[in-house]
Amino acid sequence: MNNRGAYRSLSRNKKAYFDYEILDTVEGGLVLTGGEVKSVKSGLASIKESYVTIKDDEIWLLGAHIPQWKGDTGGDYDPLRIRKILLRREEIDSLKGKINERGLTLVCLRLYEKRGKVKIEIGLARGKKRFEKRQTERERQLNKELQQERRKYMV
């Protein structure tokens, strides 16, 4: 079986979907060291508190926790270091324009593996208000109850 193009999710930021309304997504590459790649692929990375920023026409990932690989002998390692995200110039300019004119933000949604490379999914997002979060939670609860009712009558 050919698994080219198959994606394997390595880390997700579920809280981003609760706190933000995701308007658009972009896929980018992530600049990592060898030990970091092994750590991410083994599922040790956490992007829960991470965010994305644009500085000097480059995109950066901040707050992602990627622990040192157990076999890595590098002495001075910072698991929260700032990491560069690789995107095309047109994508960067487009995101930059949307952020400046609409007051949107960039959030990290997930890390995944695609054809052996570690990729990042970035979401262009608008922050939700408190009542919108409650509405989302209410809808989630209603859907859960509907699914339970369906299962009850299908058996």
Structure summarized in a few sentences:
The chain is of the alpha+beta class. It has four helices and seven strands; from the N terminus they run E-H-E-H-E-E-E-H-E-E-H.
Q: In the residues, how many domains can be counted? A: 1
Radius of gyration (Å): 18 Å
The quaternary organization reads as single chain
| Order of the strands making up the biggest sheet | 1-6-7-2-5-4-3
- Category by helix and strand content: alpha+beta
Low-confidence stretches: none
CATH topology: Small Protein B, Chain: A
What is the strand tally?
Answer: 7
Mean pLDDT: 85
Largest sheet: 7 strands, antiparallel
CATH superfamily: Small protein B
Give the CATH class. Answer: Mainly Beta
Walkthrough of the structure:
This protein is an alpha+beta fold and 155 residues long. It has a single domain, classed as Small Protein B, Chain: A (Beta Barrel). It has 4 helices and 7 strands; from the N terminus they run βαβαβββαββα. Strands 1-6-7-2-5-4-3 form a 7-stranded antiparallel β-sheet. A hairpin with a 2-residue loop joins strand 3 (51-55) and strand 4 (58-62). It is globular and about 55 Å long. The two termini are 35 Å apart.
Layout: helices, strands, pairs:
Blueprint: E1 7-12, H1 14-19, E2 20-30, H2 34-41, E3 51-55, E4 58-62, E5 83-86, H3 89-102, E6 105-114, E7 117-127, H4 130-154
What are the defining features of this structure?
155 residues, alpha+beta, Small Protein B, Chain: A
